[in-house]
Structures are given as structure tokens and as C-alpha cells.
Automatic annotation (TrEMBL):
Listed name of the protein: Helix-turn-helix transcriptional regulator
Highest rank taxon of the organism: Bacteria
One Pfam family cited in the UniProt record for this chain: HTH_26
HTH cro/C1-type domain boundaries: 6-61
Organism of this sequence: Gilvimarinus xylanilyticus
Molecular-function GO term, any one: DNA binding
Amino acid sequence: MLKCHLSRIMGEQKLKIADVSRDTGINRGTVTRLYQETAVRVEFEVLETLCRYLKCEISDLLEISPDVDQ
């Protein structure tokens, strides 16, 4: 399972979904789905834009965690 830490990172930087969407040009719905971890797919360009904006590495944003079923 892939875990997205966008909500934690945004919280640490005191950012709102609207701020990130406005400042990066990423669709608000895309940011919301990543924030709520409901996204099923995401474009590399979006990930790169988020990492540059948040000044973080991709490994800070995404993590592979073991499936509960395994």
C-alpha cells in the first residue's frame, strides 16, 4: 500500500489545500485526493511540483507500507 504524507507535511508548514492549489497550479481536487489519501493515480509532474513547492523529497511525500492482508 502506498501512503501519502501530504496532510502531515502541509500541517507542519501550516498550508491549506487552497494555498497549495493556488500556488502550484495543481487542480484543487487532485490536492484534496492526495491530502485525503483517496487518489488512485497521480502524474509524475504533479509529484515533482509538490516536492519542489514543499521543499521535500519524493520519499518524504510517499511511502510504501506493508499491506494489512499480507
